[in-house]
Model the fold of this input.
Amino acid sequence: MDNLDKLDMSILREMQKNGRITITELASRVGLSKTPCQVRVKRLEELDYIQGYTAIINQKKLGASHIAFVQLTMNDTKTKALRAFNDAVREIPEVEQCHMMAGNFDYLLKVRTTSIESYREVLGEKISNLPHVKQTSTFAVMEDIKDIASKEL
Done:
């Protein structure tokens, strides 16, 4: 860490709650005046603590309400095979997240589709055909309880 103090951490927390907050409101919430707050935000951006700003989309309104987590085991875990898998999985739009894991499986994927039927198609036609995939196990989400990307923090 690059010597972040309590004010920097407060700024990050407030901006994570609302990335569109005005500098004036942010400064008020963290106990700074506008100019020092602006300088700190710019520094946090330059140091890559703030990597960008994005809109959180209500996927349910778009019809993409089915979420599944997929444990994936590879048949080859050498660097070249992992690189090939990583490059290919990035090309599947239904895969929202992909994490390499330590444990009994190699990757954990979060997959969002419109239905269980469309998920089955993504699994069979895309995920199972990724380079070096040996086995998958699916865990379907029954209810979203807490998601950092939702408004209910």
Observations:
- The first strand starts at residue 66 and ends at 74.
- The chain has a mean pLDDT of 93.
